[in-house]
UniProtKB/TrEMBL annotation:
Signal peptide: none
GO biological process: one example: mycotoxin biosynthetic process
Protein name: Uncharacterized protein
PANTHER family: CYCLOCHLOROTINE BIOSYNTHESIS PROTEIN O (PTHR33365:SF4), YALI0B05434P (PTHR33365)
Length: 238
């Protein structure tokens, strides 16, 4: 009896010690970036392409950028290169497995299905490109009197239809910005050389997803670039 109690106490003490050690180890193990992304984002086929890096935004009032300023062929090409576009502003879809729809809280009853090599998938794309396409449309609409965009699908149709597209983009970008709710602080600089004496400093530090990696992933996985672009498919980025 004494021997049994002793063994029981030793075993109990052992497992208690192991549990205690595992508890403290688990508390000190931090999730990696991908774990955090999966925990705070809807499912995406591009999870594996997501990589983070620290960046300081360059938002000075007169800051030079290949994306800023009046339209030039070089500036238009910079915007074009920032999106996975095959022709004009037509984007090739990527395959989305049907099996993942439940993780997006969707059913497959209303969506375009893939064929051939992509049977079992649905056609779709990544929202970041839609959002950038919307931002590009707002830029183009601002400069439409200085540059001819009439050949683009977004500028086809009546003026009312064009404005509906612009308005839809304003709504989309509003939702995106309010959803992300960036709480990074910006400070007020002392600028005695200026008339206002103070100016906001918008060159703020952010932990950003590497956009080039996401863009490269999309290009590699586009149906059109793999020789399967359906000749009937015509879906503009905006």
């Amino acid at each position: 009896m004494y021997s049994y109690n002793r063994v029981y106490n030793v075993v109990t003490a052992f497992f208690f010690t192991v549990s205690l050690v595992l508890h403290f180890v688990a508390r000190n193990i931090e999730p990696n970036d991908l774990d955090c992304v999966k925990a705070t984002s809807s499912w995406s086929p591009a999870f594996g392409a997501i990589e983070y890096q620290w960046e300081t935004f360059q938002n000075g009032f007169s800051q030079k950028s290949i994306y800023r300023g009046e339209p030039t062929p070089e500036l238009e090409m910079a915007w074009l290169d920032s999106l996975p576009i095959l022709m004009l502003d037509i984007g090739s879809p990527i395959p989305i497995p049907k099996s993942k729809l439940s993780e997006l809280q969707l059913s497959d009853e209303e969506y375009l299905e893939g064929h051939g090599d992509f049977e079992g998938s649905l056609y779709g794309n990544l929202e970041v490109f839609r959002n950038l396409g919307c931002l590009n449309l707002l830029r183009q609409h601002t400069y439409r009197d200085e540059f001819d965009y009439s050949f683009l699908p977004a500028f086809k149709g009546s003026e009312e239809m064009i404005m509906r597209r612009v308005d839809a983009c304003v709504q989309r970008l509003r939702e995106v910005l309010m959803c992300s709710g960036d709480a990074t602080p910006y400070l007020i600089m002392l600028t005695p050389e200026k008339k206002t004496k103070e100016s906001p400093d918008f060159n703020t530090l952010h932990y950003c997803r590497n956009y080039d990696r996401i863009l490269d992933w999309a290009k590699e996985n586009e149906i059109g670039r793999r020789g399967h672009f359906p000749d009937w498919y015509e879906f503009a980025i905006v």
